[in-house]
Amino acid sequence: MTMQWNPLVNKNLNLEGDYGLREDNIVTLQFASGKERKYLKNSFTPMEYPSLSLELDNNEKTKNGRTELEEFQYWHSVTLRYGILQFYFPRIGNPNQTGIYEFMSMPKYSDTDGIVTAEFGLRETAVI
Known about the structure:
The protein has one helix spanning 68-79; strands at residues 2-3, 13-15, 20-21, 26-30, 36-40, 47-57, 86-90, 98-103, 108-112, 115-127.
């Protein structure tokens, strides 16, 4: 089951650190001559983004009476069942496409003057 992104939460992800192709999707073929050739196992290669962050407002209430931070936490815990379910999101690196993502880790939160930064990792599982 794939869920929608919470429309009351912004989509402005900050990409930090290294990201790239999953290692199990790259095949290395070694010839008797000693030369190697690397190629992709399938046509779709999932991307992993282990270090993303999202700034969430913890001051103003949304139309549901919760702050943006509370909306994100509610969506993650109730709708996604603590990140177990996948969700639709504009594809990272190509916002004209839609990707299906899953959380690689639980969000960690840090507060700075009412703006809370949620840090987490995402794995792209499909592209629509």
